[in-house]
């Protein structure tokens, strides 16, 4: 009797170890790949392009970035054209205007204050691009471009440049760095403050990149892990529970997609405001 | 002996404890403030969501490190 229990436990553990080797499917769904696969219907292999030894081949995330770009250009062109025929917006233009006014009144104006109009195009672009990329990842067969650290790092680098150039154009190149250290601090603190503030210039956009990347990836990993539980435990019984949890996490992911786009734009705008109006 | 998985698991667990603690405290004071002054509920809700996203950002830094460990 003892022997049977012992061998049963050993067998289960052995099977669990064996099964745990094939989690390649989970990473396959999250990571970038060189082919678009529409699972039962086939795959489209994307071209590999090498330029001067650099690999700029088209991958799945690149295709979805282009899709987001085309979608945004088309939608906004339609909305902008409809302003010619009726002054007060209806339909698509109305919906987009709600979002644009939200970004302008809740994000740009309170944080940047005077002179917010110059930064509004960048903030709107960032907000809508991140929102579209996040949502494209939630439709079936879609993949989240912003779950790629390279994409979020690029967005963070763009924010970094907008912040620095905005600050330097307002305060002058040297004045900007002088203004990083607040007034009225004792003289012996100034070297420490200088180092801390300079490092802070770099860590803040870095945090932006990591926050967006981790939020987008984590949601997908949780959903895939919950669905994979059905296959690992190899039983139908766990399916209703697994699907219910996965559905709940899916709805949460929609919320997180909206919130992360808002947070990225809000923090970028906050940093721009801190760089432009340094006497705060 | 592969300790990387164990370390990743511990790390993720501790991170979740810290994050849940922080966001729980934040939510409780937001609820209290909303109860005291229902007119400010909209502003409080917005600030709460911003602060929650920032706290979650920190816990997701640790999650990224745990993923790096687990993938090694």
Notes on the protein architecture:
The complex is a heterodimer of chains A (280) and B (72). Chain A is mainly alpha-helical and 280 residues long. Chain A has one domain. Chain A has helices spanning 2-20, 24-30, 60-85, 92-112, 120-136, 149-171, 173-179, 190-233, 239-276; strands at residues 35-38, 42-45, 50-51, 54-55. A two-stranded antiparallel ribbon of chain A has the order 1-2. By secondary structure, chain B is mainly α. Chain B has one domain (4-71): Up-down Bundle (F1FO ATP Synthase), CATH 1.20.20.10. Helix content of chain B is 89%, strand content 0%. In chain B, 10% of the residues are buried. The A-B interface holds A 27, 106, 207, 210-211, 213-215, 217-218, 259-260, 263, 266 and B 46, 49-50, 53-54, 56-57, 60-61, 63-64, 67, 71.
Architecture of chain B, according to CATH? Up-down Bundle
| Residue windows where pLDDT falls under 50 for at least 5 positions of chain B | none
Domain count of chain A: the total is: 1
Q: What form of chain A results from the Cα inertia axes?
A: globular
Helix content range of the residues of chain B, please?
A: over 70%
Query: Termini distance of chain A?
Result: 76 Å
Helix content of chain A: over 70%
Mean pLDDT of chain A: 87
Series of secondary-structure elements of chain B, N-terminal to C-terminal: HH
Kindly report the oligomeric state of this protein: heterodimer
Mean pLDDT of chain B: 89
* CATH secondary-structure class of chain B: Mainly Alpha
Q: Into how many domains do the coordinates of chain B divide?
A: 1
What is the CATH superfamily of chain B?
F1F0 ATP synthase subunit C
Q: Give the strand content of chain A.
A: under 5%
Low-confidence stretches of chain A are none
Distance between the termini of chain B: 13 Å
Q: What's the alpha carbon Rg of chain B, rounded to whole Å?
A: 17 Å
Spatial strand order of the main sheet of chain A? 1-2
- The DSSP helix count of chain B reads 2
Tell me the strand percentage band of chain B. Answer: under 5%
